[in-house]
Amino acid sequence: MAPLTLQERDGVRSQPKRGHRRKRGRHARPRKPLAGLLPPGQAGWILAVIALVDATGTGVYLAGSVLFFVRSVGLDAVEVGVGMSAAGVVGLVTMVPLAAAADRFGARRTLIALQTWRGVWFAAFALVHTFPEFLAVSLMLGVANQAVPPINQAVVAAAIEGTARVRAMAQTRVMRNAGFSLGAVAATGVIALDSASWFRSIVVADGVSFFVTAILLARLRLLRPAAPAGRGPWWHGLRPREDPWYFALAGLNGILALHMTLLSVGLPLWIAQHTHALRWVVGVAVFTNTVLAVLFQMPASRGCEQAPAAARRARAAGLMLAVCCLVAAGTGGLPADLAVVGSLLAVTALTVGELWQSASAWGVSYALAPPERQATYLSVFNLGVAAQTIVGPTLVTVVVVNHGWAGWGGLAVTFALAGAGMPIAARRCLAGRGARRPGAVTQGLA
What we know:
disordered C terminus
């Protein structure tokens, strides 16, 4: 058998020459039904199962945890919000140092430790009876929660060949969306039982899911050892003066990531309080987002393997998110039927922007993160996303939703400008690195 080419190893099959047809005899190897849905090889299967298990546990928690804390533990909504916000702040502070530890000790090893840590503390929620206990457990979880996504991205980079990484991230994202849906369905059954003991099973199940992912990670084989990060304090690996445009990319990406808060907070509040659409439309809108994300995440990620193309995809994402804002604003004075149609059009535009933004983020962050500091730089790129989870809800509710057309219009302009800035910042980042390393090849941006 002839050795595989580099393109074939990366999951891209070469096309037959024009005029020749590939023979398909009766003994031709059948196409595997899940071949296009899972990353290549055994590592791809393990990564897909990890994503599914992790997201299923998280889906159970997100759908039922607030009811558990309020009805079983006895907390009020303000106390739950304070605990979650405090955990977000802690995670923002610890994300980059933990990613630097992953560069030094190995991304997989660090991720196993963090998933085990999360499993212990999520299960500990079942023993909580007071607000101080809830706050303490939330802070312990906050230490690890924000660091997991960039370190997981570094693990994918170590397990999957270069140009197939963005596709692998898209495939695991599909599995995560499926897992969120499964978890939400499971939580609905638990909620229907309306029992304190069953409510506790919600947080225990989430904890168990993290233990399972830690075991699966231990079985994951990496293609290459991590490049040595060197010694010294973790901040020595960051070069904001030398790489200011990479940090600018992180900020712009964080602005585009406001679509997360828009879907979970902004659109539901706007539909329920400022339109004539029936409230059930909120559930239909979220379901529509999930289905479209599962179906189209992979096609939306094609062509984002290189930084220039990925940055241009962010520009398109910004424009589509701006369209979402303008359509949502226009539903305010419409009759009920038209408001329903407008709301679904808005969430469709948001979903397209979300898919393009995520694909762009993977492509840009992978292409521009130095190999010896990959986890650290991936975590820096995720700082903007983490920050929007803290300030996003207040920004969307107070500034956008409460000010109607002015608020939505301002957010639309912000999305468009952030998307337009991504190709510029990526071009400057590539040019700056080429100047520091003579002979480096950089690709132009249209």
